[in-house]
Structure formats: C-alpha cells, structure tokens
Amino acid sequence: MKNIFKIAVLIATTVAMSFKTLNPPEQVTFYQGTWKDLFTKAEAEKKPVMVYMTATWCGLCEFTEDSVFSVDSAYNLLNEKFICYKVDEKSKEAKKIRADYPIEGYPCYYYFDTKGKLLRQTNGFMFANELQKDAGKALKKFNRGF
Fold this sequence. Notes:
Shape: globular
Distance between the termini: 50 Å
Largest sheet: 4 strands, mixed
CATH topology: Glutaredoxin
Structural class: alpha+beta
Number of helices: 6
CATH class: Alpha Beta
C-alpha cells in the first residue's frame, strides 16, 4: 500500500512538473540588484528584507522554488511585505552571511531590517503555510521596531 502511494505521488509530481513549462506560475519576485542596493531599496520602500539562501545541490531548495514560492498566499505576502533576495550558497554574499549567522540546513531564510540587522533566521524546508507564519513573525518584529 505504501508503494502504491509513493508511485501515485511520483506520477502526480511528474505530471505537475510537465505543466510548469506550459503555464509558469506566479512566484516570489527576487530583487536582482547588488547587496548594498538591496538595503537602499528596502529603506526607500520601508520594507524588511527576506534573504533566501539556496544551494544548487539541494533538492528541498528546488522543491521550494517550484512548489512553495508559487502558492498564492506565500508569494503575495512575500512580494507585498518584503524585498526578497535570493543568494546562492557559493556566492560572496553567502560567505559573509554565514560568517555571522551559521546555517543548520538548506534552504535558509534570513529576515533583516532596512539597516541590515537580523530580525529572524530559519533553516530548513517549510511548506507555504509555515513560511507565511515564519515571515509573519519577522514582519511583526520589524513593525515593532524590535
């Protein structure tokens, strides 16, 4: 019975992934500028920063990008309330971040205020509803001026 369930999930995932290229879903929008400009933008828009650290070898990171970041409630919250920034674990920004805030697992989420002060860090995979709660905690802290 367990094998039948696993096969059904595998087939459903394969079918869903094949439709991804036909009609790409809306997703979290990641800022494409420099690290320095990221915080200038955040300050101008009075929004906290959510840094999503990913790794090319991380299957859960890929699943997050394909399935979690395309859930309406998740991408609406993140796009509306945060300046989102994606960092590859091999980049110079990632090395600087990890020096101050060690990672326990990928994907990793960092939430910063507009000046670059850490509000919250979460390591590991989260489903969309968990990501929303996590981002909500960082947003509350930001709005309180912690």
